[in-house]
Amino acid sequence: MSHAHAQASGIVIHGSRVYDIVFGRLIRTTDAELLARVGVAPGDHLLDVGTGPGYLALAASRLVTPGGAAVGIDASPEMIDRARTLAARGRSEVEYLVATAESLPFDDDAFDVVVSRLVFHHLPGDVKEQALSEIARVLKPGGRLLIADFASPAAKRAHHIAAHLLGNHPAAGATLGKQISDAGFTQITSGRLMHGILAGVAARTPERSAQG
Q1: Helix or strand run (H / E) with residue 127
Q2: Can you tell me the mean pLDDT for 32-40?
Q3: Rg of the Cα trace of the chain?
Q4: When comparing pLDDT for 92 and 14, which is higher?
Q5: CA 18 to CA 37: how far, in whole Å?
Q6: What is the torsional sign of CA 166, 167, 169, 173?
Q7: What is the pTM of this model?
Q8: Cβ neighbours of residue 20 under 8 Å, at least 6 residues apart?
Q9: Looking at residue 54, what DSSP letter applies?
Q10: How far apart are CA 115 and CA 47, in angstroms?
């Protein structure tokens, strides 16, 4: 299946097989903890932003049934092709789409949960802001967000360099916590995940008032 390339402004990794070989095993070990931390449950509709080979969305698809759904998006057609292949092997109904974080092809209030892993440090500051605005738009009132990244600056740099060799290098970004707050999210918390290897920032969209 052929896809048009999404017009992303940050890193777009096209070497999906190489990336998967290098990072796949480590990435998969964080699935369960991340999904538990954001409270994924049956009936949830979940979006994985920057899904890569699709592991987190694939793991989520097993937790949201019955009644829910999991969707993964990535700007790299090669990553989406690999994610679809892996999902087909597991006979999963998870949906994967080529799309960018800053232009999500979904209706308002479409998801209960949005997760994103090892993605946001690749985005320039203004693109982070656009992506967070889009995430806030597609989340339902009271929806949950969890963004996970390497806690260690050295690990983050190594991942960034590896991705640079397979994609494009973005400009430096601003402080993520402030940008999440500026995007209108509330109940913002942060903490270490996976024995301190990852750091997670969690937040919620505001509940809609009775008059709203």
Answers
A1: helix 125-138
A2: 94
A3: 16
A4: 92
A5: 29
A6: negative
A7: 0.81
A8: 52, 53, 82
A9: S
A10: 6
Q: Which token pair is 17?
A: 């097989």
The beta strand positions in 50-197, using DSSP E, are: 69-74, 95-98, 111-117, 139-150, 186-193
The token pair that represents 53 in the structure block: 């080979």
Helix, strand, coil percentages for the chain (3-state, nearest 5) = 40, 25, 40
Q: Are 74 and 100 in contact (CB under 8 A)?
A: no
Q: What is the tens place of the pLDDT at every residue in 164-189? A: 443 443 333 347 888 899 999 999 99
- How far CA 190 is from CA of 33, 38, 52, 61, 147, in Å, comes to 14, 12, 23, 25, 9
Which tokens hold the place of 51?
């899904």
CA atoms within 13 A on the CB side of 17: 1
The token pair at 21 is: 């070989």
* Cβ partners under 8 Å of residue 197, min gap 6: 30, 150, 151, 152, 155
Counts of helices then strands in the chain (DSSP H, E): 7, 7
What's the one-letter identity of residue 66?
P
Residue in the block written with tokens 């990435």: 27
Q: Which domains does the chain have, with CATH numbers?
A: 16-204 (3.40.50.150)
Residues comprising the chain, all counted: 212
Give the separation between CA 206 and CA 203, rounded to whole angstroms: 10
Q: How far apart are the first and last CA of the chain?
A: 43
Q: For position 40, what pLDDT does the model report?
A: 98
